[in-house]
């Protein structure tokens, strides 16, 4: 298992608003409109599935929110193996700074073939940073 931590982002919204927005996958319905590489996007309160173009290769993702602790963390896990047999669990950790600001950081535990992880480590890190940038951009627009 390999742990990859995302960068920590500061959000200019109350921690409660961010937690509630991110703890419901159906709030992500606008995502496919902004990401031309995402196909077959489906979401509900607890589940999210889509295909993404990763350098010409289609990768199917199925995610499920498995745990929530209000204003503290949200845990998301893959429900099936991804590309070459790896899976992950991601904890989004929230910290309240003030009544109107908070921070968010992701801690991703990736399991799978060590060779595959080595090959895709940089892409995973880049993808996680892009995810955090996307969350910040979305939150700034709320």
Overall pLDDT score: 86
- Which ranges are low-confidence, i.e. pLDDT below 50, for 5 or more consecutive residues? none
For the biggest sheet, the summary is:
8 strands, antiparallel
Number of DSSP strand runs: 8
Number of domains: 1
Number of helices: 3
Classification by helices and strands: alpha+beta
The radius of gyration is 15 Å
CATH architecture call:
2-Layer Sandwich
CATH homologous superfamily designation? START domain
Shape: globular
CATH top level assignment: Alpha Beta
Our measurement of the CA-to-CA distance between the termini, rounded to an integer number of angstroms, reads 36 Å
Beta-strand proportion: 35-45%
Named CATH topology: Alpha-D-Glucose-1,6-Bisphosphate, Chain A, domain 4
Order of helices and strands: EEHHEEEEEEH
Helix content: 25-40%
Provide an overview of this structure:
This protein is α+β, with helices and mostly antiparallel strands and 142 residues long. The protein has one domain (2-140): Alpha-D-Glucose-1,6-Bisphosphate, Chain A, domain 4, CATH 3.30.530.20. It contains three helices and eight strands; from the N terminus they run ββααββββββα. It has helices at residues 15-22, 31-34, 114-140, and strands at residues 2-5, 9-11, 38-43, 47-54, 57-69, 73-78, 87-98, 101-111. Strands 1, 2, 3, 4, 5, 6, 7 and 8 form an eight-stranded antiparallel β-sheet that branches. The longest helix has 27 residues, at 114-140. It is globular and about 45 Å long. The mean pLDDT is 86.
């Amino acid at each position: 298992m390999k742990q990859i931590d995302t960068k920590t982002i500061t959000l200019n919204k109350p921690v409660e608003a961010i937690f509630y927005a991110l703890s419901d996958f159906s709030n992500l319905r606008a995502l496919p409109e902004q990401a031309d590489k995402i196909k077959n996007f489906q979401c509900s309160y607890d589940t999210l599935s889509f295909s993404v173009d990763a350098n010409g290769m289609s990768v199917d993702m199925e995610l499920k929110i498995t745990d929530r602790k209000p204003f503290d963390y949200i845990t998301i896990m893959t429900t099936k193996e991804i590309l070459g047999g790896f899976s992950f669990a991601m904890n989004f950790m929230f910290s309240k700074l003030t009544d109107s600001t908070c921070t968010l950081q992701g801690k991703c535990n990736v399991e799978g073939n060590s060779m595959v992880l080595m090959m895709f480590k940089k892409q995973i890190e880049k993808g996680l940073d892009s995810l955090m940038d996307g969350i910040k951009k979305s939150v700034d627009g709320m």
